[in-house]
Amino acid sequence: MAVHPIDYRYGSEEMRRIWDEENKLQKLLDVEAALSRAHAKVGNIPEESARVISERANTKWVKLERVKEIESEIHHDIMAVVKALSEVCGEHGKYVHLGATSNDIIDTANALLIRESLAIVERDLKTLRSILKKLAREHKYTVCIGRTHGQHAVPTTYGMKFAIWLDEVQRHIDRINQLKERVLVGQMSGAVGTMASFGEKGLEIQKLVMEDLGLKPARISNQIIQRDVYAELMMVLALIASTLDKIALEIRNLQRTEILEVSEPFGKKQVGSSTMPHKRNPIRSEKVSGLARVLYSNVIPALLNNPLWHERDLTNSSVERVILPESFVLLDEMLKSMIKVLSGLEFFPENIERNLYLTNNLIMAEPLMLKLTEKGMGRQEAHELVRQLAMKAFYEKRDLLEVVRESEEAMKYLSEEDVESLKPENYIGLAPQIVDNVIAFIEEKEREEASKDQ
């Protein structure tokens, strides 16, 4: 019976499959098999035993049901795996788990699960990057009102909005690649990390196991991979979630009825409300913002898992059973939802233009001040004059430029041509060039990635 929504509602089947019981068991068995092969290479066990253990270290031989049955009797999850694998290996089973402690197997298997999960996250971030790059290029000159403190500020462009997000997504791709160096690490170091149980060949055995599995060996451990590594992982996942939350929040705000500059795609048969048939709610973006809160909250337990009693205790274990699959599955849902939203984002150009002129040119106060300064008025004097004119226009509900034309003090410095030039479309600065710079940077990154993949 499914209980948690990640079992039936959130995340792709691909991501859920990584963290399901069968695959987690298989990863534990993969580590046990690699350990047996390492022992054989250094001459600790017969090659035939390593061959048999490796052949049978899979869920076709080692059944999940049998592992659970053993665990219900002995109350130890890894020893249950060891016993179940030993059973199917016959006389060779005596070499299973030789010298290892439970977390040698658990933490190394976790690294395999994390590697598979990060590959999906990175792939989806690259898809999101492509979508944002396309939107930034297409809307490089789509002028809209910029808002600070929720108030109209000065003009910007939609290209700038998308390029901001694009640049941030690239940083997350970079973070994941940097993170891999620290998180895709395994260990084979024994009870408190001294490798005493492996004898003089401990370092060699650990190196062989990790090479076999495609992981880096931990430089030092004390029975567990240190949990600052997991905490960093959780913080990076939460940081990615915060970007998706940021994008979702902006779309939700821009889809408000009073603003309605952009909108999530809305299906022909989609229902917005059980009682209000007209509703077009930004449900995907709201879901993204909601799930982000769970990922934020998972950072704290990950941080608390780092300080443990002496060499280690078990308080991190139960937490990680929850926060690792939950965070990856929910982030997977968030990424795929945002890809859908941005792929089908609907624009309302008439509303973008309406909102740009909503304040009767009050948003031209800054360029007006700068124009007066350019023409010879002191900057502070110009600021005060424009402030007075802007307040007058606001309270009288008139166009700022009309009020400026009536000001003798302002018109001593300005020509009619100067006033006419004060249009929102003329005040986007270097926005198009800035967007081009971001796109050029992203495309260079893409070329670097392509060359590495070849």
List keywords for this structure.
454 residues, two-stranded parallel ribbon, 18 helices, 63% helix
Report on the structure:
By secondary structure, the protein is mainly alpha-helical. The chain has 18 helices and six strands. The strands form three sheets. Strands 1-2 form a two-stranded antiparallel sheet. Strands 3-4 form a two-stranded parallel sheet. A two-stranded antiparallel sheet has the order 5-6. Helix 8 (202-213) links the parallel strand 3 and strand 4. The radius of gyration is 30 Å and the shape is elongated. The mean pLDDT is 96.
Outline:
The protein is mostly helical and 454 residues long.
Most strands sheet: 2 strands, antiparallel
H-E string: HHHHHHEEHEHEHEHHEHHHHHHH
Strand content: under 5%
| Span between termini | 45 Å
Low-pLDDT runs of 5+ residues are none
Strand elements, count: 6
Structural class: mainly alpha
Strand ordering within the main sheet = 1-2
The overall pLDDT, averaged over residues, is: 96
Shape: elongated
Kindly provide the radius of gyration, computed on alpha-carbon positions and rounded to a whole number of angstroms.
30 Å
What is the helix tally? 18
Task: Give the % helix.
Answer: 55-70%
